[in-house]
Write a structure and sequence with these properties.
Blueprint lengths: L15 H19 L1 H7 L2 H25 L5 H23 L5 H30 L4
Helix pairs in contact: 1-3, 1-5, 3-4, 4-5
The structure holds fe (ii) ion (FE2).
């Protein structure tokens, strides 16, 4: 059984606005984890995936702007990861629109993967870079 993502200070990238966005995204992940049965029975799955995509895209744009303005050396790689995550979520929405309700399990797994591999690894790589430039 996949659990909720419980925020701890270890997850902080040291930039207040990004931490707030990450926390908001975990709140949405947890909402999906908690309400998955209801989401399937009410047919609100694609709506809920779309809500996540909207929020995550806003967050990606914020991060990308900050990283590009500061000439982050791995900007291109980071941008490509964002784009591919956004594309994958769009595919989930498409499948949910076709009534594939079992997708909720895959989507939650995907969200946990995004959290572990992108937020806790890739985002952490810019932590020191931005903090050294006094961006908090
Ligand atoms: Fe990122």
């Amino acid at each position: 059984m996949i659990r909720e993502i419980i925020w701890t200070d270890e997850y902080s990238v040291g930039v207040e606005a990004i931490d707030a966005q990450h926390r908001e995204l975990t709140r949405l992940v947890n909402e999906i984890v908690t309400n998955q049965d209801d989401l399937i029975s009410t047919g609100d799955l694609s709506k809920s995936f779309a809500k996540f995509l909207k929020l995550v895209k806003e967050h990606f744009q914020f991060e990308e702007k900050l990283l590009s303005e500061n000439n982050y050396p791995d900007y291109e790689k980071h941008l490509m990861e964002h784009n591919s995550y956004a594309e994958m979520i769009a595919e989930f929405i498409e499948s949910a629109n076709q009534g594939q309700s079992h997708l909720v399990d895959h989507f939650i797994l995907f969200l946990h993967g995004w959290w572990r591999h992108h937020v806790l690894e890739e985002d952490m790589k810019y932590k020191q870079f931005l903090n050294e430039r006094d961006i908090r």
